[in-house]
Amino acid sequence: MDTVNICTRPAPHICTVNGPCNGWPQSVVKPFPPTPYKVVTLIINEDGSQTFLKTDSADCFLELGEVVTGRASHVLPATFWKRQAFRLFRILGDAGRIAQWTRGWRGPWLVDTAPTAGVVLEGRWMNRQDAIAAEVEFLNEWLTERKIS
Question: Where in the sequence is the domain holding 109, given as residue range(s)?
Fold first, then answer.
């Protein structure tokens, strides 16, 4: 069985199959659970490597070989002090009870794409899941436009 390197952070990430590492991967060999997302944007690069946004619906690509991931963006509280507390709590990790508790905070939330596109998305979302959905939509469009131009 091939080793698959994926990041265990819950937010969507940019994954590169058989390409350069742009994150801090952790080795696991476990498929993702089913998801409501139905669209995966897949970019096949000239060298044959593939780039896609890792969401739960992209688990089919784990069978293609080594997968390395990197953070694509951050979904953060929009309020300055709440954002600082969120970052402080997340130093403890993205898994566990504290991380789960922070995901349930009331908004507004913002999407910061600094690791990839370098912009903060316009708009504030009261529900974190709505912010994540906007993040996924933006990153899929950004990946496609970046590879075409």
Answer: 74-127
Q: What is the pLDDT of residues 95-123, one digit of tens each?
A: 888 888 998 999 899 999 998 888 999 88
DSSP code, position 29:
-
Do 83 and 43 lie in a common domain?
Answer: no
pLDDT for the residue 32: 43
Q: How many domains does the chain have?
A: 2
Give the single-character DSSP code of 74: E
Contacts of 49 (CB under 8 A, 6+ apart): 16, 17, 18, 19
Number of Cβ atoms within 10 Å of the Cβ of 102: 20
C-alpha count within 13 angstroms, C-beta hemisphere, residue 12:
30
51 shares its domain with 95: no
Residue 80 lies in a domain: yes
Domain annotation covers residue 133: no
Residue 99 Cα distances to 87, 117, 136, angstroms:
10, 25, 20
